[in-house]
């Protein structure tokens, strides 16, 4: 019975994932209009419904993040001109007419064609508007990793004790005696007596002061890299749809004159959170030799698996950090960045949960980066 239950849960999740891949999302919106006359006309209600639908789309973009919200402003006129391309279905949830204020209010739930919305955003980007000849080359390198070992250090404790003592003593000694002789019958007799008195006093005081310090050192972690060939397809598709001419960093390496090495970047990410200055400098020099103006870099850190409390399936979280560099300038400039942001994936096994989490993190990171550069008008 438990197996059947888990299978049904997983089937529902798979169905939901299929709907997500179809790029259909639900959103709610509410709007009001003021009318003339005794009651709201059909035109007034249609106007309020259209405004509520736009509010629903705006709410969807607001939840997606700041850069996505800016994208909505850029395509608002397109949506109003052809709403049926972006709204697949609309249902009125509630409507209210206040005749005293001559106001009609309606709440709707809409099914959004997110694929068309994103296409509208991308068609508005500077790269796409420039046509195929204006597509800018972009290289990317993202590594998936998991903590392999962590070394912690004991606290170093230093103690100091200062002691101070004072001692005072007084002594008095007095001696008193007498001595005499007697003569008689040819004999001499002697006698003597001694009386001694002594007194003394002693006083001692002491004080102790303690002090010291405790030094703590942060733990050192090393990472192991995870295979992420499937993630390359996720990043490639997102950056390509944004209008860039995309290549993986490994494909660019032979054309960098030996200045850029993928292995060097991977080694840095195995032992730290960011690239060393020398590694970053060699990457920039190599990409300039290969005439690549934009480079996307990032890490996807995989957490330990646990059991999802809602479904009983395995759950794995992934923390993503990403940035996009413009190296066409003398000093490279970070023109878009994401993270740290955490995403979670679930599945019947740890491997499936991890893969789902990685794909979700990669897809959202790439989408956020492309949204930011679209807003900037990057060519």
UniProtKB/TrEMBL annotation:
Annotated signal sequence range: 1-22
UniProt entry keywords in alphabetical sequence: Signal
Q: Where is this region: Disordered?
A: 172-218
Where composition is biased (Polar residues), the residues are 188-218
Q: How is this protein named in the record?
A: LPP20 lipoprotein
Native organism: Comamonas guangdongensis
Q: What is the lineage of its organism?
A: Bacteria, Pseudomonadati, Pseudomonadota, Betaproteobacteria, Burkholderiales
């Amino acid at each position: 019975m438990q197996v059947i239950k888990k299978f049904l849960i997983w089937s529902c999740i798979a169905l939901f994932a299929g709907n997500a891949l179809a790029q259909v999302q639900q959103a709610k919106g509410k709007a009001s209009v003021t009318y003339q006359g005794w009651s709201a006309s059909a035109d007034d209600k249609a106007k309020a419904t259209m405004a509520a639908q736009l509010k629903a789309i705006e709410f969807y973009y607001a939840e997606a993040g700041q850069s996505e919200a800016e994208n909505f402003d850029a395509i608002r006129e397109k949506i109003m001109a052809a709403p049926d391309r972006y709204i697949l279905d609309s249902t009125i949830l509630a409507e209210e007419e206040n005749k005293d204020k001559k106001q009609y209010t309606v709440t709707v739930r809409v099914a959004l064609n997110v694929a068309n919305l994103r296409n509208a955003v991308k068609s508005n980007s500077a790269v796409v508007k420039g046509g195929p000849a204006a597509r800018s080359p972009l290289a990317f390198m993202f590594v998936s990793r998991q903590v392999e070992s962590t070394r912690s250090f004991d606290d170093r404790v230093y103690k100091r004790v200062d002691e101070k003592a004072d001692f005072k003593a007084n002594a008095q000694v007095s001696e008193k005696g007498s001595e005499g002789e007697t003569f008689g019958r040819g004999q001499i007799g002697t006698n003597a007596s001694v009386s001694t008195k002594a007194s003394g006093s002693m006083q001692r005081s002491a004080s102790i002061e303690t002090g010291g310090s405790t030094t703590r050192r942060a733990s050192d972690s090393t990472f192991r890299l995870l295979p992420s060939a499937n993630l390359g397809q996720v990043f490639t598709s997102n950056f390509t749809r944004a209008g860039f001419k995309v290549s993986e960093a490994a494909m660019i390496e032979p054309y960098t004159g030996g200045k850029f090495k993928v292995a060097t970047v991977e080694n840095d990410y195995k032992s730290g959170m960011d690239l060393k200055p020398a590694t970053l400098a060699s990457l920039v020099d190599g990409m300039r030799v290969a005439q690549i103006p934009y480079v996307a870099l990032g890490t996807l850190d995989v957490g330990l698996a646990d059991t999802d409390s809602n479904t009983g399936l395995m759950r794995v979280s992934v923390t993503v950090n990403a940035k996009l560099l413009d190296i066409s300038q003398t000093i490279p400039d970070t023109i878009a960045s994401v993270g740290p942001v955490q995403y979670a994936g679930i599945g019947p096994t740890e491997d499936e949960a991890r893969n789902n989490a990685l794909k979700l993190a990669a897809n959202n990171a790439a989408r956020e980066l492309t949204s930011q550069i679209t807003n900037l008008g990057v060519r």
